[in-house]
Inverse folding.
């Protein structure tokens, strides 16, 4: 695969036939794979049905991302732990927490996370892009998304390489998570294309522990991810087209009831989800 934005995946598949281009993002793909009904209620139905409000865990993740975005915008000499903590304060919001006391406790916790990160796993980082919107075009899809950070580091042979960095605030990620992430693979392909520099390594940085889960891709693994993205995008597009032509939405976009339905933001429109799990409070999925 070369560094161009147009990837000739059809060369890998002799049975390839032309289809309309489908625009996809990692968030859409993840929602489709998790529950097609939630995908329909979120991305297909217009006007979109109302969703439930903010969840504390999402707020925590969003604030940490904003703080680190601002932190790496600072000149490197000013990237101190105190500066990271102050930026966390600047971006803080109480949305989704039970009350002000609970929010204050997690705010302190998040301040420590970013300060420790600034002194530990995040120290000495050499970012070349922050919260950058990137895209990859193949003959079948335009896949795009926002990458948290792209670093430039010396590779094994001493030459510069790019590294995709993604921040996590939930459970501790594993190397397998990094390897299996379609989003990270997409970002790696897009980064090398946009910045004309090799990019094979992808990393998940876990703020609560400072642990880094990493994987190094090769051409085959990157192609594999992009081929799976193309297949999922085709399924999404087919379901949408059939629904627009009068197909049954509940058949084309089936519900997948599971315990996680308790925190689904469209559960009020989904009887199957409500039947399988009671509603979970917006702050219930926070780490204790
Ligand atoms: S409540 Fe469950 S089954 Fe229903 S849309 Fe949400 S995730 Fe899917």
């Amino acid at each position: 695969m070369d560094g161009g934005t147009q990837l000739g995946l059809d060369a890998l598949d002799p049975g390839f036939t032309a289809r309309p281009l489908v625009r996809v993002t990692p968030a859409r793909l993840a929602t489709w794979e998790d529950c097609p009904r939630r995908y329909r209620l979120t991305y297909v139905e217009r006007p979109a049905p109302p969703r439930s409000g903010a969840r504390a865990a999402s707020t925590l993740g969003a604030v940490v991302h904003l703080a680190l975005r601002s932190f790496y915008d600072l000149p490197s000499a000013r990237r101190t732990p105190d500066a990271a903590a102050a930026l966390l304060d600047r971006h803080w919001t109480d949305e989704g927490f039970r009350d002000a006391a609970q929010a204050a406790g997690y705010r302190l916790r998040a301040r420590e996370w970013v300060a420790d990160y600034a002194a530990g796993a995040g120290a000495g980082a050499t970012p070349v892009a922050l919260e950058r919107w990137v895209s990859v075009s193949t003959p079948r899809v335009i896949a795009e998304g926002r990458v948290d950070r792209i670093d430039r580091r010396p590779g094994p042979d001493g030459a510069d390489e790019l590294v995709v960095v993604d921040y996590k605030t939930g459970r501790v990620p594993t190397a397998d998570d990094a390897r299996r992430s379609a989003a990270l693979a997409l970002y790696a392909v897009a980064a090398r294309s946009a910045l004309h520099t090799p990019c094979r390594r992808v990393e998940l940085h876990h703020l609560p522990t400072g642990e880094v889960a990493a994987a190094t891709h090769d051409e085959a693994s990157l192609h594999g991810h992009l081929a799976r993205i193309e297949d999922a995008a085709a399924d999404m597009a087919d379901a949408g087209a059939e629904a627009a032509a009068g197909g049954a939405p509940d058949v084309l976009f089936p519900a997948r009831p599971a315990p996680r339905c308790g925190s689904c933001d469209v559960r009020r429109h989904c009887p199957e989800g409500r039947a399988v799990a009671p509603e979970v409070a917006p702050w219930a999925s926070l780490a204790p």
